[in-house]
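Handout, section 3.2

Students often ask what a structure token actually looks like in practice. Rather than define it abstractly, here is a full record for ATP synthase F1 subcomplex epsilon subunit. The first block is the sequence as you would receive it.
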Amino acid sequence: MALAVSIVSAEAEVWSGDASQVSARTVEGEIGILSGHEPVLAVLAEGQVRVTPIDGAPIAVDAADGFLSVDHDRVEIVARHAQLA
């Protein structure tokens, strides 16, 4: 089963789509997310969010000042600053 991923900044949607994996840096350390992950809400640390889409090449997004939410194979990342790396 795929993860439904949405990454948005204060200005616009940066990326959305289906992915097999997402990893990000939080204030408590690095987190990796696969299908079936337990629900979590975390504060993002400044760094890269890495996404492995179901189709296509991996992407990286530079993100800062935001949070990450995981629930029922849906990953939402909302950051004040986010742009494709």
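Discussion prompt for tutorial groups: The mean pLDDT is 96. How would you have guessed this from the sequence alone?
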